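Bumping with the actual sequence this time:
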Amino acid sequence: MTQSAAAASNDRARPRGEPTTTVRSLDDLARLTAPEAEALYRRSGVPDRMDQLDGDLVGRMLALRGTRGVVLGALAGFARSSGFPWAGKSFSARDASTGNGINRILLGGRHRLFPFRTRFGASVIDGGPAVVLDYDDPDNPGFIRAIHDEVREVSPGLYFGPACWKSASGATTTILWFGLDTRGVARVARPS
């Protein structure tokens, strides 16, 4: 998809600097329940260009689907805490509408694992435009290749989206929500 095609098909694009909500931080996102996260996601937009995600973005796990009971509640709390080993995702645009990325894990050291490709595409949540993270890479184990992530921008520099599981039939199930923050990330200057 070209930049103009992405912009033309993006009915959720919004002018820069106009937040869609009072959610302005990963902490704000972490307070949402799974249904609140989905409702907010449906109202959120996408960036104009893929390079708006470039850098080592700070990540945070958010609401887990169906977290009822003491054990699941404790797991959800740990996933949302700063002690959770997933540190975020790193993005690098190839052009205005595609790029590459990798997850950053802090477990027995710092690791960059599970590469993905990025593109603008249809959301599995509502069919609207989203930044899709495609893990179907031969370097990834099968269980990672079955992950479908996507993100939208909820306020300037703050992104979030669902992490989904793809079945063999291609159906997706939302497992959890995650957030990514570009603010404070060192940016590489790109020629215009």
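The tokens above came from a reply further down the thread. The domain at 32-181 is CATH 2.40.128 (Lipocalin).
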